[in-house]
């Protein structure tokens, strides 16, 4: 399946890169396709290298303003005109979305896919890999929104938090396989 990954464009230390590598390796070994921002920058490049080495197909969705940062080893590289179009393609091409550690770009991407999911504009699984408690603050904020009536659907339906790469991949696979089963039983 196509797994869109959002993650940092910064160069990070081993505390963050090791779990991201584990996830990317598992993605490749399980025969999935990596869809990502199409850059060699920082953790994005680490994830692409590791997934490729493990046999993944790579689909990069770059953007004109960052074309000079494009990854040269992708099987397919799309260059969009702007960031909004890129986010739309990253979602469109996904069967599931996995969010690794990241900064404002990653935060922008994950909040957009959650907002669209909240409105029922897609129902793709979203999994946050909570490396070293990186997303604890976000989880606390989202839980408060859920408990105090800010969300129209239960938080558990919008996003799952995974403690490690293997679990993140399993959550994504289970959600996609489960929705395939639902489609079969609905048409039976
Ligand atoms: C500005 C510099 C590098 C930025 N290069 C990027 N290349 C491709 N995609 C990017 C880049 N920066 C952000 N993105 C997208 O946002 C996410 C990462 O942003 P974050 O702020 O680092 O979390 C990522 O998922 C991309 O889709 C240095 O010269």
Notes on the protein architecture:
This protein is α/β, with parallel strands linked by helices and 188 residues long. The protein has a single domain, classed as Rossmann fold (3-Layer(aba) Sandwich). It contains seven helices and seven strands. It has a seven-stranded parallel β-sheet with strand order 4-3-2-1-5-6-7, sandwiched between helices. Helix 4 links the parallel strand 5 and strand 6. The radius of gyration is 16 Å and the shape is globular. The C terminus is likely disordered. The protein binds the ligand C/C(=C\CNc1ncnc2c1ncn2[C@@H]1O[C@H](COP(=O)(O)O)[C@@H](O)[C@H]1O)CO. The ligand C/C(=C\CNc1ncnc2c1ncn2[C@@H]1O[C@H](COP(=O)(O)O)[C@@H](O)[C@H]1O)CO binds next to helix 4.
Describe the SSE topology.
Elements (H helix, E strand, L loop, with lengths): L1 E5 L7 H16 L3 E4 L5 H12 L3 E7 L12 E5 L2 H10 L3 E4 L4 H15 L7 E4 L6 H12 L7 H4 L1 E3 L2 H23 L1
Parallel strand pairs: 1-2, 1-5, 2-3, 3-4, 5-6, 6-7
Bound molecules: ligand LYK5OOP5.
Q: Provide the CATH architecture.
A: 3-Layer(aba) Sandwich
Biggest sheet, strands in spatial order?
Answer: 4-3-2-1-5-6-7
Q: pLDDT average, as an integer?
A: 94
Number of strands: 7
What is the CATH first-level class name?
A: Alpha Beta
**Range of strand content:** 15-25%
What sort of overall outline do the alpha carbons produce when their principal axes are compared? globular
Bound molecules: ligand LYK5OOP5
Tell me roughly what share of residues is in helical segments. 40-55%
- SS-based structural class? alpha/beta
User: From N to C, what is the helix and strand string?
Assistant: EHEHEEHEHEHHEH
Number of helices: 7
- From the N-terminal CA to the C-terminal CA, the straight-line distance is 24 Å
* CATH T-level fold name: Rossmann fold
Number of domains: 1
Report the uncertain regions.
Answer: 183-188
Largest sheet at a glance? 7 strands, parallel
Radius of gyration: 16 Å
GO molecular function: cytokinin riboside 5'-monophosphate phosphoribohydrolase activity
Protein name: Cytokinin riboside 5'-monophosphate phosphoribohydrolase
Pfam family, one: Lysine_decarbox
Keywords: Cytokinin biosynthesis, Hydrolase
